[in-house]
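Propose amino acids for all 256 sites.
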C-alpha cells in the first residue's frame, strides 16, 4: 500500500530577520494608505512614522509669550554726574585756588584793617585781629585771657606788637618762649566758664581816645584760673589796641 503525501505540507523555515522586514514593509504600506487617505504625503521607505497625537480637548493651544521689553539702564548718581561735568570741576579748582590764596595772604600779609572789630563769642579760635578797645569782654585783654583758656598760644602771642613785651611775659612765667608760657597758663585754668567772665572796674568801660593805657590783672575780677599780670596797650593808626608792654605783678596778687 502506497503512502499518500500530506495534503498541507509544513511551511518552510523562515528567517526571523526576513520576517521582521516583511512585517515592517506591511506596516509601512498600511501607513502610506492612511496618509493618502488623510491627504498627507507619504514618508520615504525606511522612515518610521511619527506617532499620532491628539490634543487634549481641555488644554488650550500654547502660545509664544511676547518678548520682554528691554530694561532701562540705571540712572547715574548725582555725584557721578557732577564729577563728570567740566563746569563743576572748574568751580572746584577755582574754590581751592581761592582758599589757598586767602590762606597765604592772611599768613604773610594779614593784619588788622581799619574798621575791623575783634568779635569773640567765647572760645572761638581763628581771630588774630586786635580789638578796637583794650577794656571789657570784647577788648584785647579779655581776648588774651580767652586764648589762654583755649591754649591758642599762637594767636595769643600775636597780640604782642613789641618783642620786649613778649619777652617780659615769657620771663614772668619762667618759660622758654611766649607760646610755652601760654600753654603753661592754660593748664592752670580750673573753670573755663568763670575764667572768661572778667570783671573790669568802672573806670575801664569807656573806650580811650588814643595813646596808651595800663590794665592790671590785680584790678580785675578773675576767677577760675591764674591772673596774667599788667598789660600796657597802645592804639595803632587803624584804631586797634595791641600789647606794647608787659610787667609781672606781685605774687600775692597773681595767686589771689
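Proposal:
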Amino acid at each position: 500500500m502506497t503512502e499518500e503525501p500530506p495534503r498541507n505540507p509544513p511551511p518552510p523555515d523562515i528567517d526571523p530577520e526576513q520576517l521582521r522586514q516583511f512585517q515592517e514593509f506591511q506596516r509601512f504600506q498600511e501607513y502610506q494608505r492612511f496618509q493618502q487617505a488623510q491627504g498627507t504625503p507619504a514618508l520615504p521607505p525606511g522612515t518610521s512614522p511619527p506617532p499620532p497625537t491628539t490634543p487634549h480637548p481641555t488644554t488650550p493651544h500654547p502660545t509664544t509669550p511676547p518678548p520682554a521689553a528691554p530694561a532701562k539702564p540705571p540712572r547715574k548718581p548725582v555725584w557721578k554726574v557732577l564729577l563728570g561735568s567740566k563746569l563743576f570741576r572748574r568751580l572746584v579748582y577755582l574754590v581751592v585756588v581761592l582758599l589757598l590764596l586767602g590762606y597765604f595772604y592772611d599768613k604773610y600779609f594779614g593784619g588788622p584793617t581799619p574798621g575791623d572789630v575783634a568779635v569773640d563769642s567765647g572760645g572761638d579760635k581763628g581771630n588774630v585781629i586786635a580789638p578796637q578797645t583794650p577794656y571789657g569782654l570784647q577788648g584785647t585783654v579779655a581776648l588774651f585771657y580767652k586764648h589762654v583758656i583755649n591754649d591758642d598760644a599762637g594767636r595769643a602771642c600775636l597780640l604782642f606788637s613789641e618783642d620786649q613785651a613778649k619777652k617780659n611775659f615769657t620771663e614772668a612765667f619762667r618759660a622758654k618762649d611766649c607760646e610755652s608760657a601760654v600753654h603753661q597758663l592754660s593748664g592752670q585754668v580750673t573753670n573755663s566758664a568763670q575764667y572768661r567772665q572778667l570783671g573790669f572796674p568802672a573806670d575801664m568801660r569807656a573806650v580811650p581816645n588814643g595813646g596808651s593805657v595800663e590794665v592790671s590783672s590785680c584790678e580785675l575780677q578773675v576767677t577760675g584760673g591764674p591772673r596774667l599780670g599788667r598789660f600796657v596797650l597802645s592804639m595803632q593808626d587803624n584804631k586797634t589796641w595791641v600789647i606794647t608792654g608787659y610787667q609781672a605783678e606781685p605774687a600775692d596778687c597773681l595767686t589771689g
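Confidence is low (pLDDT under 50) at residues 110-128. The first helix runs from residue 16 to 38.
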